[in-house]
């Protein structure tokens, strides 16, 4: 990931459009294909932005199936809302950020869903000094992300939409089907805001929140659903955990990365406990843990293993460290999960062969 | 050029684009010889293929004898390149020949489908790697999507031919292939050499893309024979039968080939593609899917269909397809019709059976694309071998399919006849009905009553069943495998299926099926049904000699995985519903018996780890959250396994452990734990005076209210003892209470019919309370009545 300019260096986490500004420019310059109305890039260039293009020096930014990314882009291009659903930690937000950047060049029109969110945080609110002084006027109106997106023809991101109360979710209905927002306080041309071409919504929702604020059928109908899976391919997931944890450890100033054998234990354990089914390596018969067993979490655990081993004893991570870290960072205080993890060690780990597996099994007494 | 080299077209079987290419080449070239990858022993009977059948059909080749059962299909649909070569070659008056080895040859030992994508496992790996690299660089996912993208678009046939050559050339590389494939290729090359040597016209070869590069290399090195290459003959052996026959086939079966034996899935879609082109096939797909979804009351509104259509067009554009292809349509459907998060990947992104948890909408869609077209043979076609084999078998056994038949299962002849009839039942042949007989294969009943008849539809059903195999045993085996697969992890259905297998005397199974069954069992969610299935299957495995089921690999596989899964499910604490209590104990007994049987019986080793079972039992005993019934049973299991102490390395379990467990429980749990203990360790506990004394003391220590609560379960616990042992316990109790003057029956006699123990106990308690109150007020007799 090239650091593109000074801004990127000094920000803690620069948004995609700043971090990859140079790549976006290159893509736009080389882009010969027709662009959907209001889009910053053509569909192909947008796909290349997300999944990488070696010829243009565009990096791959996420591990996701090509077909899925293509479906998402076409959904956005055909003007339907896109709903990304999946387990926590499957990089839904990153995906939505990248898609918004690719389509509109901006990823910051973001609404963060939550129990306390209200309609005016989504649509617009007022500058009260001006409101009192002048009465309702376009000048006194403070646009929120949805208003800005419709006005400028940009993609708006709605994170964790199912955490928002139902009445707030439903205020999207009109905007999604009629593409118009009424501003009853204003009159004349300002009373109706018609969405410009290029406006759309990418929402994300967490399957663990299923049933918290179940979306209405009417709203669901206006979205195309796309399930984001944990990385299905073992090798890819292992490589990703290896790379990401090495980066984190380097940033923490630790000279060792976590050894491959320990990472293998980690990734296999995570995949088993996720009850993932990836054909060849399928063990079957595992119960899913309540805890989140995402790749992101695996990276955190790998980082913790490295930190623990180095700062406590100045050595590389070992299987025993992994047992401690999994117990602490993943299982937390869910008794049910603790029992499942213990059962996993007693019954499944016990059967695996290899020295590292043996060491892992021997360290099971460290489980809470 | 046309005379210098043969035109070898490497095809993917069942690919409409390849079929189109073959047809175009045939028309352009007008070859003298059309050589097709197919069973050469069928050459003499090629005419049978053109009797006016309804496709799909297959040439079924078999070899059967003692210890060998082999069957292989060469399926044809209308959009198969081989079929087009056959039909058009014949129409143009060319000399049409099948040039591959007969399917009974050793080369086909592991290959049930001649027209598989990858004719060997090693090659499948290589092909996967190549296709993965290709897919990565093109940004496409999945072999089918890649194939469609590369070849199934309507392109110019010359370009298509070059591309196919290049593609298959890369796929194969310089790989010499396995022995079997080398033998096949040598044989095919010999045919090409023969045709080229004749020199009287162009030679067109249609073969799998895998073989094409090798054939192009090989034929030149072979001597030009004047005669047609001889078809190898199987070893002369009186017991060995072999042959090839036409059988009706179905798209569903074409779709269902698994693993590296698979070809193109969704045959109906490709049939449309062949008949009407991609545009019309897509519309047909949308139309039929919408219709099916509405029939099934799944949502597919007009708005949804508009969105689907738009989406598919968009995807096609993005992916550079002139018209949307199969993957575009399917992806569009997934994007627009699904309104929930999915638990498993979309079914067209992986190969093999659709995974459990797939959205019903997608399952229906894949089913629509597979189609339910069934082939039908023309009336004059020679009958499949099954009919003759069956007639022979019936005659040999002296069975006539008419009237009522009573069979004695204890005689070998009776058992043999019963097997035949049960196999016919498995094939669902009409006219065969079992009126009476044992439900379980290993039950003590020894008579069966059958009602037999030969209705008109029997013949038709037999011809259809002929597609399953050449002999009754083979066909029934194939039908059984289909049924077991169909159970989809429902353990009860699985056990039923295996029971049917035992009744029909079928004990073998293919490796793929075993793997399927393992996975199915590993996915089952409840302990009790698993345990009960174990209780049914393990005795069959151990003692099924008479049924030829002892040591059956089929049973072994299911038992091993059921054991593994049952231990996994037993461990977590779970409440046991009263109705499940008995089943739970039965299941634990089955587990215990398995461990015990393994220790006692080295002749039939199973790969089950007894120490693990013991460790699970031990953890169960010590798990305070578990149901007392389960804990008691686990302790009982440990007490009744003599090797427990040596193997587990755990603290020894003995009487004190049992007493400690009972003491630690609340009064209402006492009976449950005791049930568990007695159900599993009756022999070890029920005659021990110290144990009975301890139980007696515990019960005596209960106050009246607690006793009432504990009573039903306690009574239930002693019901596990046979009458004689109950008598033993009774005399122990009498001795403890120094009441030896009373007979045992004072304690064990049945209660008067109209009262149950609970009522009696409650009445006694009330009476006592009344007396106590009267006494307190000083109005009662000084003594309480005894």
TrEMBL record, chain A:
<dbReference type="InterPro" id="IPR050764">
    <property type="entry name" value="CbbQ/NirQ/NorQ/GpvN"/>
</dbReference>
<protein>
    <submittedName>
        <fullName>AAA family ATPase</fullName>
    </submittedName>
</protein>
<feature type="domain" description="AAA+ ATPase">
    <location>
        <begin position="78"/>
        <end position="233"/>
    </location>
</feature>
<dbReference type="InterPro" id="IPR027417">
    <property type="entry name" value="P-loop_NTPase"/>
</dbReference>
<dbReference type="Pfam" id="PF07728">
    <property type="entry name" value="AAA_5"/>
</dbReference>
<dbReference type="InterPro" id="IPR003593">
    <property type="entry name" value="AAA+_ATPase"/>
</dbReference>
<dbReference type="InterPro" id="IPR011704">
    <property type="entry name" value="ATPase_dyneun-rel_AAA"/>
</dbReference>
From TrEMBL, chain B:
<protein>
    <submittedName>
        <fullName>DUF5682 family protein</fullName>
    </submittedName>
</protein>
<dbReference type="Pfam" id="PF18934">
    <property type="entry name" value="DUF5682"/>
</dbReference>
<dbReference type="InterPro" id="IPR043737">
    <property type="entry name" value="DUF5682"/>
</dbReference>
């Amino acid at each position: 990931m090239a650091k593109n300019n000074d801004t990127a260096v000094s920000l803690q986490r620069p948004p995609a459009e700043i971090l990859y500004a140079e790549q976006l420019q290159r893509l736009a310059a080389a882009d010969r294909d027709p662009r959907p109305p209001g889009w910053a890039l053509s569909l192909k260039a947008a796909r290349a932005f997300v999944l990488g293009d070696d010829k243009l020096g565009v990096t791959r930014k996420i591990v996701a199936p090509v077909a899925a990314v293509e479906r998402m882009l076409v959904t956005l291009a055909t003007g339907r809302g896109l709903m990304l659903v999946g387990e926590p930690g499957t990089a839904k937000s990153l995906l939505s950020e990248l898609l918004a950047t690719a389509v509109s060049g901006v990823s910051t029109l973001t609404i963060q869903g939550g129990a306390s969110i209200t309609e005016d945080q989504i649509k617009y609110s007022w500058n009260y000094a001006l409101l009192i002084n002048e009465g309702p006027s376009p000048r006194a109106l403070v646009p929120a992300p949805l208003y800005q997106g419709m006005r400028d023809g940009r993609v708006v991101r709605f994170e964790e939409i199912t955490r928002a109360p139902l009445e707030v979710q439903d205020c999207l209905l009109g905007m999604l089907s009629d593409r118009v927002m009424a501003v009853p306080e204003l009159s004349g041309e300002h009373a109706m805001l018609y969405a410009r071409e290029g406006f759309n919504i990418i929402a994300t929702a967490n399957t663990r929140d299923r049933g918290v604020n179940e979306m209405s059928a009417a709203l669901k109908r206006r979205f195309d659903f796309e399930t984001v899976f944990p990385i299905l391919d073992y090798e890819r997931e292992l490589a990703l955990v290896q790379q990401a944890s090495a980066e984190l450890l380097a940033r923490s100033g630790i000279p060792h990365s976590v050894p491959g054998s320990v990472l293998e234990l980690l990734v296999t354990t995570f995949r088993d406990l996720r009850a993932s089914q990836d054909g060849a390596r399928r063990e079957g018969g595992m119960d899913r843990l309540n805890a989140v067993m995402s790749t992101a979490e695996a990276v955190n655990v790998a980082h913790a293993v490295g930190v623990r081993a180095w700062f406590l004893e100045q050595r590389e991570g070992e299987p025993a460290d992994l047992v401690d870290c999994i117990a602490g960072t993943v299982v937390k205080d869910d008794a049910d999960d603790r029992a499942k993890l213990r059962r996993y060690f007693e019954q499944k780990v016990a059967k695996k062969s290899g020295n590292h597996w043996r060491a892992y099994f021997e360290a099971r007494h460290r489980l809470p | 050029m046309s005379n210098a080299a043969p035109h070898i077209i490497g095809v993917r079987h069942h690919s409409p684009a390849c079929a189109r290419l073959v047809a175009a080449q045939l028309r352009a070239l007008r070859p003298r010889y059309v050589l097709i990858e197919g069973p050469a022993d069928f050459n003499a009977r090629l005419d049978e293929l053109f009797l006016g059948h309804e496709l799909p059909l297959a040439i079924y080749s078999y070899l059967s004898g003692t210890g060998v059962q082999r069957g292989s299909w060469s399926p044809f649909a209308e959009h198969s390149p081989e079929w087009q070569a056959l039909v058009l070659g014949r129409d143009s008056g060319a000399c049409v020949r099948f040039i591959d080895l007969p399917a009974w040859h050793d080369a086909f030992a592991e290959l049930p489908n001649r027209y598989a994508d990858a004719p060997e496992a090693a090659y499948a790996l290589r092909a996967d790697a190549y296709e993965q690299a290709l897919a990565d660089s093109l940004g496409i996912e999945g072999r089918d999507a890649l194939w469609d993208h590369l070849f199934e678009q309507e392109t110019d046939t010359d370009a298509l031919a070059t591309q196919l050559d290049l593609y298959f050339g890369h796929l194969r590389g310089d790989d010499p292939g396995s022995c079997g494939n080398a033998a096949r290729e040598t044989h095919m090359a010999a045919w090409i050499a023969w045709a080229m040597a004749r020199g009287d016209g162009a030679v067109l070869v249609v073969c799998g893309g895998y073989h094409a590069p090798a054939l192009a290399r090989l034929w030149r090195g072979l001597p030009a024979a004047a005669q047609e290459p001889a078809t190898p003959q199987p070893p002369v052996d009186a017991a060995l039968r072999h042959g090839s026959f036409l059988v009706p086939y179905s798209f569903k079966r074409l779709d269902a080939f698994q693993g590296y034996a698979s070809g193109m899935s969704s045959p109906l879609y490709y049939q449309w593609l062949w008949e009407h082109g991609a545009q019309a096939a897509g519309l047909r797909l949308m139309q039929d899917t919408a219709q099916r979804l509405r029939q099934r009351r799944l949502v597919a509104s007009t708005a949804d269909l508009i969105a689907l259509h738009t989406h598919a067009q968009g995807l096609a554009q993005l992916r550079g397809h002139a018209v949307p292809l199969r993957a575009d349509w399917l992806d569009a459907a997934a994007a627009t019709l699904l309104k929930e998060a999915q638990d498993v990947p979309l079914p067209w992104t992986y190969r093999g059976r659709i995974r459990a948890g797939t959205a019903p909408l997608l399952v229906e869609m894949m089913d629509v694309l597979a189609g339910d077209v069934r082939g039908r043979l023309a009336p004059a076609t020679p009958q499949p071998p099954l009919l003759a084999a069956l007639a022979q078998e019936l005659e040999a056994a002296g069975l006539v399919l008419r009237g009522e038949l009573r069979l004695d299962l204890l005689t070998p002849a009776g058992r043999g006849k019963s097997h035949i009839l049960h196999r016919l039942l498995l094939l669902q042949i009409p006219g065969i009905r079992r009126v009476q007989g044992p439900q379980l294969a290993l039950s003590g009943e020894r008579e069966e009553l059958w009602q037999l008849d030969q209705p008109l539809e029997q013949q038709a059903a037999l011809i259809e069943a002929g597609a399953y195999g050449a002999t009754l045993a083979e066909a029934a085996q194939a039908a059984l495998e289909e049924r077991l697969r169909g159970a989809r992890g429902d353990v009860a259905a699985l056990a039923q299926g295996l029971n049917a297998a035992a009744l029909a005397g079928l004990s073998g199974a293919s490796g793929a099926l075993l793997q399927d069954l393992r996975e199915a069992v590993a996915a089952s969610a409840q302990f009790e049904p698993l345990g009960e299935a174990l209780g049914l299957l393990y005795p069959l495995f151990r003692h099924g000699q008479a049924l030829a089921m002892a040591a059956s690999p089929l049973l072994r596989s299911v038992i091993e995985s059921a054991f593994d899964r049952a231990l996994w499910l037993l461990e977590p604490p779970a409440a046991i519903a009263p109705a499940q209590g008995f089943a739970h104990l039965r299941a634990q007994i089955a587990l215990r018996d398995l461990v015990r049987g393994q220790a006692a019986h080295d002749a039939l080793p199973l790969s089950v780890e007894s120490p693990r079972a013991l460790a699970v039992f031990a953890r169960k005993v010590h798990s305070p959250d578990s149901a007392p019934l389960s804990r008691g049973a686990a302790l009982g299991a440990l007490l009744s396994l003599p090797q427990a102490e040596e193997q587990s390395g755990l603290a020894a379990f003995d009487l004190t452990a049992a007493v400690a467990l009972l003491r630690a429980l609340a009064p209402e749990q006492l009976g449950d734990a005791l049930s568990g203990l007695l159900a599993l360790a009756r022999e070890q506990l029920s005659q021990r005076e110290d144990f009975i004394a301890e139980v007696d003391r515990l019960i005596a220590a209960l106050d009246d209210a607690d006793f009432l609560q504990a009573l039903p379960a306690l009574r239930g616990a002693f019901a596990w003892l046979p009458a004689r042992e109950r008598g033993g316990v009774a005399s122990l109790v009498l001795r403890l209470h120094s009441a030896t003057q009373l007979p045992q029956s004072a304690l064990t006699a049945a209660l008067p019919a109209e009262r149950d123990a609970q009522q009696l106990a409650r009445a006694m308690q009330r009476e006592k309370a009344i007396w106590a109150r009267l006494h307190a007020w000083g109005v009662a007799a000084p003594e309480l009545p005894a």
